[in-house]
């Protein structure tokens, strides 16, 4: 470490690397003071708050993080790190996908052979394919769980409405990724899963035919479909996802972390990084203060001061007991503003946690890849329909719904309706509260839709056999991954 006494105030102000280093501190320190190193990393190496802040500002990777984050963000329960895990899975998919691209040609005559070759003739080919496949499945699951977490935390509310909408776009892109990738092995499983999936599109009123044609590029799935799915899978969707992810993470940074102030303060809601808390606490009646007071409200002099936090107001309206700290004359009230600095540096506190989660995610998909081989059935045969022909698991709930209702309703109106309502949710749901006890209606509707989707998916994936007949998994499993 550098002796700070030896650093001049001038150098600190400039944010330049001080031109001093203790000669006794070995090669690593010397390396950090070479011209080459300092041409890459210009910030001071000082282990001081200012040094760490400058590191954050001047490093493109660290710059993704705010310099300081609320301490609560460090807790696993804050987000279960699901958004971060989804990001890591995306990067694992990019790396493994590029390796697979070296050995794969999107042609109906060679695609299946390439997959066989990956199994036996290419170093780590099978493992990389397995990891790619399990990461893709896991990413769909993790993104859905992330959405559920964000919903229950109420983190989609002002000012994060738009980021929720971006999230919905990311979910759609993630599903598109998995679906287009499904066809590439060109075996019976992929061919028929994609046939079932693309059939859904044909039910779209008016444009069904055009859309199906655009997607599969002919009367049935063939070379043009494979080529289109490949282009979508390796170029269009990765670019779209990278772009939207950039916006998403940028917005997380700008909107501030949705950290609930929790029951310890008795308040409801969330605050962005750097928010201000006030030391007076309570609710008010005419001319008397009993509540958390916002300074700008107090400025409305001459009016009876009527300020109370949403939570207190709701609690009062429901007849709940609230903590009464005092009843005082309006004139005698002074709001003492207290900046809460319950924040910590992102580096090392948050970033080391992220490194551990990233390593854990990599270890998990590696373990899955070693333990379970990605399936490869017989080569695709348009004349031989397997029984049952199932859509990929994340669309099988829809297939189950289709087996029970009119295709137009089950295949189009229900999913389109759910997606639209979901996307516009933050604009319908104006209730500012984030705690579940104040959001009973929203939570009940969301939980019902979620439950129905999960039940349909489980039935479709595990309990359906030939002829879409009911077959319990303990008799025979027709689960396809
Ligand atoms: C490819 C898919 C996605 C990735 C990689 C991703 C990534 C992330 C990351 C890294 C964060 C910050 C930390 C965290 O909350 O875990 C985040 C937050 C957030 N995400 Fe996502 N996300 C994705 C999809 C979604 C979806 C489907 C939604 C909801 C429709 C969503 C809505 C949000 C919101 C509102 C926040 C801010 C929450 C807060 O501040 O607590 N995201 N996302």
From TrEMBL:
Protein name in UniProt: Unannotated protein
Indicate the principal place this protein occupies in or around the cell. membrane
GO term, biological process aspect, one: respiratory electron transport chain
Per UniProt, residues of the Cytochrome b/b6 N-terminal region profile domain are 42-261
Domain named Cytochrome b/b6 C-terminal region profile: residues: 380-481
The subcellular localization recorded is: Membrane
Q: Which organism is it from?
A: freshwater metagenome
- Membrane-spanning parts: 82-104, 134-152, 164-184, 229-250, 355-376, 408-429, 441-463
Keywords on this record? Answer: Electron transport, Heme, Iron, Membrane, Metal-binding, Transmembrane, Transmembrane helix, Transport
UniProt topology in membrane:
Multi-pass membrane protein
Coiled-coil boundaries: none
Q: Which InterPro entries match?
A: Cyt_b/b6_C (IPR005798), Cyt_b/b6_C_sf (IPR036150), Cyt_b/b6_N (IPR005797), Cytb/b6-like_sf (IPR027387), Di-haem_cyt_TM (IPR016174)
């Amino acid at each position: 470490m550098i002796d700070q006494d030896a650093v001049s105030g001038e150098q600190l102000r400039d944010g330049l690397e001080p031109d001093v280093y203790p000669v006794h501190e070995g090669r690593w320190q010397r390396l950090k003071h070479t011209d080459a190193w300092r041409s890459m990393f210009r910030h001071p190496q000082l282990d001081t708050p200012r040094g760490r802040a400058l590191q954050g500002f001047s490093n493109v990777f660290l710059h993704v993080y705010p310099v300081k984050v609320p301490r609560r963000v460090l807790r696993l329960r804050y987000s279960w790190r699901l958004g971060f895990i989804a990001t890591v899975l995306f990067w694992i998919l990019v790396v493994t996908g590029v390796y697979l691209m070296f050995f794969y040609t999107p042609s109906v005559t060679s695609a299946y052979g390439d997959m066989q070759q990956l199994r036996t003739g290419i170093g780590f080919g099978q493992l990389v394919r397995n990891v790619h496949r399990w990461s893709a499945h896991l990413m769909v699951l993790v993104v859905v769980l992330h959405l559920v977490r964000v919903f229950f935390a109420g983190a989609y509310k002002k000012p994060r409405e738009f980021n929720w909408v971006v999230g919905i776009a990311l979910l759609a892109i993630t599903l598109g990724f998995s679906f287009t990738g499904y066809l590439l092995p060109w075996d019976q499983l992929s061919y028929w899963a994609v046939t079932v999936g693309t059939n859904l599109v044909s039910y779209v009123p008016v444009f069904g035919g055009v859309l199906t044609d655009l997607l599969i590029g002919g009367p049935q799935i063939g070379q043009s479909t494979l080529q289109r799915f490949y282009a979508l899978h390796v170029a269009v969707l990765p670019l779209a996802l990278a772009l939207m992810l950039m916006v998403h993470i940028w917005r997380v940074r700008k909107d501030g972390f949705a950290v609930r102030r929790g029951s310890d303060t008795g308040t409801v809601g969330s605050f962005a990084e750097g928010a201000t808390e006030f030391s007076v606490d309570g609710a008010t009646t005419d001319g008397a203060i009993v509540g958390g007071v916002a300074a700008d409200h107090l400025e409305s002099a001459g009016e009876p001061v009527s300020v109370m936090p949403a939570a207190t107001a709701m609690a009062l309206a429901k007849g709940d007991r609230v903590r009464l700290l005092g009843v005082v004359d309006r004139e005698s009230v002074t709001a003492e503003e207290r900046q809460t600095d319950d924040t910590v540096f992102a580096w090392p506190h948050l970033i080391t946690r992220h490194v551990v989660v990233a390593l854990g995610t990599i270890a998990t998909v590696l373990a899955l890849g070693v333990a379970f081989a990605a399936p490869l059935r017989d080569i695709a045969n348009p004349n031989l329909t397997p029984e049952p022909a199932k859509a990929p698991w994340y669309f099988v709930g829809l297939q189950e719904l289709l087996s029970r209702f009119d295709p137009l309703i089950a295949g189009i109106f229900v999913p389109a309706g759910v997606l639209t309502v979901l996307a516009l949710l933050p604009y319908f749901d104006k209730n500012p509260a984030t705690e579940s006890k104040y959001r009973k209606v929203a939570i009940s509707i969301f939980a019902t839709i979620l439950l129905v989707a999960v039940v349909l998916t489980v039935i479709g994936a595990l309990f359906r056999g030939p002829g879409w007949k009911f077959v319990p998994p303990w008799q025979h499993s027709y689960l396809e991954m």
